[in-house]
Specification:
The protein has 10 helices and 21 strands. The chain has 448 residues and is of the alpha+beta class. The radius of gyration is 35 Å and the shape is elongated. The chain starts with 32 loop residues before the first strand and ends in a 6-residue tail after the last helix. The relative contact order is 0.08. The N terminus is likely disordered.
């Protein structure tokens, strides 16, 4: 199973719009009893339907967690009179929790229903939410109290934590953070969740409580990992952090100046990710005909062989370029105080054309070289020796004007210009145009 894909763009802090339809009048409904706080491991419950409109249902009590605090909502089913309805989304409006189901003609107001949570998903969220607090504690412990939560999003397979920090977090420091976070996990510390008077909470824990932002209300919910990290938080968490399992940071990136994004996983997703990596390593080892333990040596050997082969290829290309340049030089045309050489090749990339041009212009300082090649796309280069430049030659202009003939563009400096285009059939025309511009420059006629 894949870990969740990363989001590379920084999240703008904007006021989140409620998903609850604005025309709903919920003012007469009582506060929904939140079972997920009282009994976070409760998977099933019974409740009375207090209100229904369209595919939205309000119950007198619920174990379904509504979206909030970077944690997605629960899903699952509601059962009524032998029928089963999927719970697709859960949102909170004021003190009332709304459940969006997959039917507008299912449950009815006044009847009893049985709710069943998708426990696999909920438990993953609980582990990742608890892991977020553990990881943030490790970051602040090792990097300093200036580290502040900038954004967070929990997922089933991975979660992300954006934190403020003045520089990139090194690979060595990432490993230290992982080790400390997992050390805390292995200590299986108690995770206490309690409601406190705001002033008392701030006096006891300080304003670092508000890592996820200042929460409203005179009473706030505190999640306190024993002697490690305390935050004002409305999410669901494990009651002992040992349930989190192994924490692994799987990616990090700088999403904006002063903000580092860490993507991490905990529990079974870590094992699955490591197993995927192990399979890739084994497959690579088989391709390299070595063992997984020796793959680093095999890769280094292959890289060294590639470097050696590349050097040989470069030497051969250089020798070929020398031979081509020697053969071409006799085809140059004298014009005023310069020599002009214009040739078309059936193949060869820009690098090869430049290599030939360098040899020719180094051997003859009066030389102007206009070379072109192409099969599927057209390339053209213009190069000039030192004395040709003194005669007013501008290769950037030559390449630019010549490239128009092949329906492309180009430019460059006086000593080297390059161009390209899609019309290979007009390469001869482009070369002629290049020669024409070159002669005008050598004649002192730069006004067209």
């Amino acid at each position: 199973r894949r870990v969740a894909e990363l989001h590379s763009k920084p999240q703008k802090k904007t006021e989140k719009k409620s998903k609850v339809p604005t025309h709903f009048d919920l003012s007469e409904l009582p506060e929904t009893e939140l079972l997920f706080y009282k009994e976070p491991y409760k998977r099933e419950f019974t409740a009375d339907v207090l209100w229904k409109e369209g595919d939205y249902v309000v119950l007198d009590r619920t174990a379904f967690y509504p979206e909030g605090g970077g944690q997605p909502s629960d899903d699952g089913v509601l059962k009524s009179n032998g029928d089963k309805f999927e719970v697709l989304d859960v949102q909170k409006s004021g003190d009332v929790v709304l459940h969006k189901i997959d039917s507008e003609n299912g449950v009815r107001t006044g009847e009893k229903v049985k709710g069943e949570i998708n426990w696999e998903k909920r438990s993953a969220y609980m582990r990742h939410h608890t892991a977020t607090h553990i990881l943030l504690g490790a970051l602040r412990s090792l990097l300093g109290d200036h580290v502040w939560q900038h954004g967070v999003q929990k997922g089933e397979e991975s979660s992300r934590l954006d934190v403020s920090h003045h520089k990139r977090i090194s690979e060595e420091k990432i490993q230290e953070i992982e080790k400390l976070a997992n050390k805390i996990v292995f200590q299986d510390r108690k995770v206490n969740s309690l409601w406190m008077d705001r002033n008392e909470a701030e006096k006891k824990y300080g304003h670092s409580l508000y890592q996820g932002g200042v929460v409203p209300g005179r009473k706030i919910r505190i999640v306190d990992i024993e002697d490690w990290n305390a935050q004002a938080c409305s999410g669901t968490h494990c009651t002992h952090n040992g349930e989190v399992g192994l924490i692994k940071i799987i990616n990090r990136e700088r999403i904006q100046d002063g903000v580092e994004r860490l993507v991490f996983a905990s529990g079974l997703p870590v094992l699955e990710s490591l197993q995927e990596q192990e399979q890739r390593i084994k497959k690579s080892a088989e391709t390299l005909r070595t063992s997984p333990d020796e793959i680093d040596k095999a890769v280094q050997k292959l890289f060294d062989q590639w470097k050696s082969a590349k050097k040989e290829v470069d030497n051969l290309r250089s020798r070929v370029a020398d031979l081509k340049a020697e053969k071409l030089e006799k085809n140059s045309e004298s014009f005023n105080n310069i020599q002009i050489l214009a040739e078309k090749f059936e193949d060869g990339d820009s690098d090869e054309l430049i290599q030939i041009g360098e040899i020719l212009t180094n051997n003859n300082k009066n030389m102007v070289v206009i070379l072109a090649s192409g099969k599927t796309s057209a390339n053209i280069i213009a190069m000039a020796g030192e004395k040709a430049l003194e005669e007013g030659i501008n290769c950037g202009e030559i390449a630019s004007e010549a490239a128009k003939s092949i329906e492309g563009g180009g430019g460059g400096k006086p000593e080297l210009g390059q161009g390209g285009g899609g019309n290979v059939e007009k390469l001869e025309e482009a070369i002629k145009m290049g020669v024409k511009i070159c002669k005008k420059q050598a004649s002192g006629d730069n006004n067209g």
